Amino acid sequence: MDNIWNWYQGLGIAFGSVIFFSLNSAIAQITITPDGTLSNNSQVTQQNNLIIIEGGTRSGNNLFHSFNEFNIPAGVTVELRNASDIQNIIGRVTGKSISNIDGILKSNYTANVFLLNPNGIIFGNNATLQIGGSFIASTASSFNFADGTKFSATNPEITPLLTISAPVGLQFGVATPGSILNQSQANADNARNPVGLQVQSNKTLALIGGDINLEGGNLTANSGRIELGSVAANSLVSIMPNFQGWVFGYEGVQNFKDIQLIKRTNIIKGSEIPSQVDASNKINAYNEDEGGGNIQVQGNTVELIGFPVRLRTQTTGTKDGGDLLINAKKLILRDGAAISTATVGAGNGGKLTVNASDSVEIISNFYDLNRTYPSQLYSSTGGIGKAGDIIINTRKLRLEDRGQVAVDSIEEFRQDSQSLASKGAGGNLTVNASDSVELIGPSGTSGTLQKASTSLSALTYTSGDPGEITINTGKLIVQGMSEITVNNDPQTDPSQLSSAGAINISAKEIFLDNKGKLTSNSESGNGGNINLQTDLLLLRRGASISTTAGTEKAGGNGGNITINARNGFIVAVPNENSDITANAFTGSGGRVDIQANGIYGIQFRESPTFLSDITASSDFGRQGTVELNIPDIDPNRGLVQLPTIPTNTQVAQACYSPDYAQNRFVIAGRGGLPPNPKDILTPDAPQIDWVSVKPINNNRSILPVSSKLTISTAKPIVEATVMRLNAKGQIVLSATSTATSHTFTDNRVGCHGS
């Protein structure tokens, strides 16, 4: 076992005789000891490398065992002997040591085996199961039964009251539950790939405890059920029987712990060993119609790292595949890891559902031998059956550096050693992300690496109907050559191809940047439909929205693009070549229907240009339709044009009025105050300019000096008593027959006196 030392250190276990068993398989010693707590205790005997366990306490169809320690060294077989009518073999470990299983655990007939050790359980590289029923390993404190009975490993009774019913729950106590580690690479039945821990077809294989770690370890349950559950203290996990063995419920769990699937390095060979969990049906004549099995993963952070780390279920026969369900706070896939459901037969693929309350992160890829293996969530069909649907419910979905979510139909499958054309329809992809969906493009820019893009896709390479993509989120960001696509790419008879699928997006903000794309294109069939509901659509640096048909210079009509931004805006930069297109080659152009408050930087054109365009053209067919519905608002409507009267006026800081304050300050333009701003008082009257006032020499004020200014000695204001006509026929008012005149020649504001 490559990393056993690290595990014991991490779990705080003292090194001693316990480790000796797992590291030295050449000398097999009995490491299974009964604890003497049952009315009929277990009997353990050794015959060379075979350890036989008999006895135990029977209650109905249940057989109970209780051990102080339970370990199986490599090269050793432990056989639990039981009668043919025993349904459940239930064992507990009441001591303080971890169970280290690196050999073969065997039982008779079809009995289910339950193993309970709160301290922790390690399955080594050679760990193998040879049992006829289901296998449940747990680090819970006790098994709970329907009649209220508990079979406790932390509080063992001298003479426990045992029950005839099957377990209904796993009770976790106040202490932090122990971890479970699986490193098994056992190769039972000379399978092409190591199966690791494996149960019979249609049975359950479950690991339920604290942290669950698969480190270069495999789990296999052909057409059965695989359960990985990681829970914290003070939890109750319910158990119910079903046709595949057992189903587990987590309603009684408030806090969860972590689950990790990673690769392990073989120190001797220098190779990397991946972890794989597989519930597919086995390809042979006896069980090909059993359908794919089910997988459920329940934890806090669920993390898969490395290629080819896998969680998968597949069906190859006429029955439908099983479902794959992940419930977590956070799901992380990195470096080429994948989670998938598939069908390569007549049965439909199973549904893949991810419920991650915080986030889903699908990041980076594995690159080897000029090929890129992206991190993926995917569902596919390579047969007649329909690919399963993918549903993601989360707060934030982030795909980066070629991370992918895909529902695909591939071009062929094999049956009776023959390659047959696939006809299966693609599945549907639904994303509900309350906060955001982000697709961030790859950092590399060369060659083969660009063939795997960051994407959400529903692709079909067959005559089957493609799937649809539906996204509901607060903000959608697609950038760096990332794409959301439902393309139709022919690999069979193009005449049988259907239209590309639809993309339906509802997001408050949609941001496409640096060649980010939304496409529902078809190589030779009809383009699909794109429907957007948003308040802001922003397109930058070569971004595109396209339902183009005939991208390979073939037939097909362009699809429809509907953008409803009735309360928002569509914004692009004119010279950045960001486009909205529903074009065709020989078929008819599609339809573009946009409703928005405003469209800026992008406009309708008859055919594509190097500017930002909205087009529905056809190279050799009929032009499509573009309808832009924008409110008809004239910004000048309802405004009054005010008259403009140019003035060149300077205002003096003070008026010179010694000894009295009888001056008035009036701004009335040049020549008095006319009744209309456009008129003057008298057409022929001279226009008298304003003047500046003489500086005051008592330091009270300093005013600009007029170039020509004469001013008389200040006199009291006298009312006009005389009105006469001058030589020009103008009316002159004065207090006396001869009025003192004032000459104002400087065009500045001054003071008036009389």
Coarse morphology: elongated
Strand content: 35-45%
State the helicity in percent bands: under 10%
Number of helices: 2
Could you give a short account of the major beta sheet?
A: 26 strands, mixed
Structural class: mainly beta
Describe the protein in words:
- The chain is mostly beta strands.
- The chain has 2 helices and 58 strands.
- It has a 26-stranded mixed β-sheet that branches.
- Strand 40 and strand 41 form a beta hairpin.
- The N terminus and C terminus are likely disordered.
Task: Please provide a brief summary of the model.
This protein is 2% helix and 41% strand. By secondary structure, it is mainly β.
How is this fold's topology laid out?
Layout (H helix, E strand, L loop, with lengths): L3 H7 L6 H7 L8 E3 L7 E6 L2 E6 L1 E3 L2 E9 L6 E4 L7 E6 L5 E3 L2 E4 L4 E5 L4 E3 L4 E3 L4 E4 L3 E4 L4 E3 L14 E6 L7 E3 L14 E3 L4 E6 L2 E4 L2 E4 L3 E6 L4 E8 L2 E8 L6 E4 L1 E2 L6 E2 L2 E3 L15 E5 L2 E5 L4 E6 L8 E11 L3 E6 L8 E12 L1 E4 L2 E4 L1 E6 L8 E11 L3 E6 L2 E4 L2 E4 L7 E12 L14 E6 L8 E11 L3 E3 L17 E11 L3 E3 L9 E5 L2 E5 L3 E3 L13 E13 L6 E3 L9 E10 L2 E2 L8 E3 L9 E5 L92 E4 L5 E4 L20
Parallel strand pairs: 3-6, 5-7, 6-9, 7-10, 8-11, 9-12, 10-13, 11-17, 13-19, 17-20, 18-21, 19-22, 20-25, 21-28, 22-29, 25-30, 28-31, 29-32, 30-32, 31-33, 32-34, 33-37, 34-38, 37-39, 38-42, 39-43, 42-44, 43-45, 44-46, 45-47, 46-48, 46-49, 47-50, 48-51, 49-51, 50-52, 51-53, 52-55, 53-56, 54-55
Antiparallel strand pairs: 1-5, 2-3, 4-5, 14-15, 14-16, 16-23, 23-24, 26-27, 35-36, 40-41, 57-58
